[in-house]
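Researcher: I'm preparing a figure for a lab meeting and need a structural model of a single chain. I don't have an experimental structure, so a prediction will have to do for now. The sequence is pasted below. Please return the structure as tokens so I can convert it later.
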Amino acid sequence: MKTLRLFIAALVIVPFVSCSAQTSGKEVQTDGNNSDKIEAYYFQAGTQGWMGILLVSAVYMIVTVSGMLLLVYLGNKGVRAIRSHFLDHHEKLLSGMVLILLGVFALIINL
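Model: Understood. Here is the structure written out token by token.
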């Protein structure tokens, strides 16, 4: 049971604090996402059968959805803290200015 708890803790903690992998002084090239780490978890869980794979999937889903919900909550809390009186009265003007600036920027960089 202790091993199972350590395995779950590793699944939760490692993706957030992982560093670049190194072997014999040479850096391992990755494509910049966490898919290589997740594949290693699934490979290890595969030795435990379908229950291991289901456990990894459940923990990964819970951590991912919890992280998304936390970020949305914090973003919503931050937006509510902004005094939006100015934005309420000038939203069309600001939207127009942003569109014009984006058009000029696209023209400059030849999009």
